[in-house]
Automatic annotation (TrEMBL):
The protein's name in its UniProt record: Methyltransferase family protein
Highest taxon above the source species: Bacteria
GO biological process: methylation
UniProt source species: Pseudonocardia hierapolitana
Molecular function GO labels: S-adenosylmethionine-dependent methyltransferase activity
UniProt cross-references to CDD domains, sorted A to Z: AdoMet_MTases
Domain Methyltransferase type: 44-144
InterPro entries: Methyltransf_11 (IPR013216), SAM-dependent_MTases_sf (IPR029063)
Bilayer-spanning residue ranges: none
Length: 245
């Protein structure tokens, strides 16, 4: 996995907002973060890439330990962030295999941010990984994570009907997320799809995005729809917030 991300460098899951669909997904992730990460929190950001959400956390006054499995991506992160005000919020950068967070103490962080489908990439030990992430947040802290959606992936990429990517990643239903959090000893706080209507034909969405007011209204409706229990299986990712039980 580390070699794979080293090759990707500044590319990968945290792609630029190259089209309206990606912009929607990023905004859903961003607003979910704002709901659950307190201002001034001490945050462990897992799989930060070249700057997925460090800048957003910095804007909230958070103190961030930035991690990634790839040293190349951490170097890209430093190049991108160090010349911005967000750099003042970075406590340190560390290469981290998220299947082993034993270096961190119980309750060391107010929040852990594990966006990007981390738990989908470790299908054999996802319960143990989430249990450890819950261990390193404070008793009233929060783990924010996303997993690749099984049904949403079918919807967005119809040929992918076997529920498993070539890399062996696990794709989840919302009911699987509920079970995962419970088995890891956590309490599920809330969830959301990463996209809903925007996971369809990109043509009409591009026209909406060209009009600022229409785009603003669309985002409000889209984000509300993503949070509906019946829609959580319909996006390419499932987001969830969990805390210690």
């Amino acid at each position: 996995m580390r070699k794979h991300f080293d090759r990707l460098g500044e590319q990968g899951w945290g792609r630029p907002d190259s089209d309206a669909g990606h912009r929607v997904s990023r905004e859903v992730h961003r607003r979910f973060l704002r709901r659950f990460v307190p201002r001034g929190a001490r945050v462990l950001e897992i799989g930060a890439g070249a700057d997925r959400f460090t800048t957003e956390l910095a804007a909230r006054g958070c103190r961030v330990v930035v991690t990634d499995p790839s040293s190349a991506r951490l170097a890209a992160h430093e190049r991108r962030v160090r010349a911005t005000p967000a750099e003042r919020s970075v406590l340190r950068r560390e290469v981290l295999d998220a299947t082993d967070v034993s270096r961190y103490a119980d309750g060391e962080f107010d929040a852990v941010l594990a966006y990007g489908g981390l738990l989908s990439t470790v299908p054999a030990c996802a319960i143990g990984v989430l249990r450890e992430l819950l261990r390193i947040v404070a008793p009233d802290g929060i783990v924010l994570a996303s997993v690749v959606s099984l049904l949403g992936s079918w919807r967005h990429h119809p040929p992918g009907i076997d529920g498993r990517a070539e890399t062996g990643e696990r794709r989840y239903r919302w009911s699987d997320v509920v079970a995962l959090v419970d088995e890891a000893g956590g309490e599920l706080v809330d969830g959301s799809a990463s996209n809903w209507a925007s996971a369809g034909d990109p043509g009409p969405l591009a026209h909406v995005a060209a009009d600022r007011e229409r785009w603003r209204r669309f985002l409000e409706h889209e984000i509300a729809a993503c949070a509906e229990p019946g829609a959580r299986d319909g996006g390419t990712y499932i987001l969830f917030a969990a805390r210690r039980r």
